Amino acid sequence: MPVSMYTVSIPVFIQHLNGLNTVLDKAAAWAAARKVNETDLLNMRLSPDMFNLSRQVRAVTDHAANAAGRLSGKELLKFANDETTIAQLKDRITKTIDYLKNIKQSEIDGSEAKDITISFPSGQTRQFTGQSLLLGNSLPNFFFHTTTAYDILRQYGVEIGKRDFMGTPPSS
User: Fold this and answer.
1) What's the domain count of the chain?
2) Is the separation of the CB atoms in 47 and 29 below 8 Å?
3) 4 in a domain, yes or no?
4) Which CATH number goes with the domain that contains 26?
5) Distance CA 53, CA 90 (A)
6) Which pTM does this prediction carry?
7) Domain span including residue 157
8) Fewest beta carbons within 10 Å, which of 85, 89, 125, 141?
9) DSSP assignment, residue 3?
């Protein structure tokens, strides 16, 4: 039996975005208890050549929303990319979840062979099928940035665990 493109995308994105919300709540509490400046927290990174925490969260939401939008044919969700607080990042996550919840299964299923072209600001383009976009690009990038955000916080001592990362599956 084939696996539904919707089933391996939208509910998975929502579950882990919920987890990221929990992780950010715990990070905020950790920072407040230790009097760590929120700006400093959001600028933490695993390595000097990697994105900071804020940029990791932005990438998570972008990969989820852009995959859903491209597969469903809906207008892509746009953000100003100017979040400077945990509350603003959590709002971005909430808006992404709301966007995902408005995509119907019938709009995603059957998009496996859909031709998708992504244009980058550099002028380069990449060609995908719906399936190659989701399985070879969007999901791996989504999980990379979600894991990296989690790892940044763990590295600095925020008490989070696998259950926080996993999030809560969306209710049917």
Assistant:
1) 1
2) no
3) no
4) 1.20.120.450
5) 13
6) 0.96
7) 10-166
8) 125
9) P
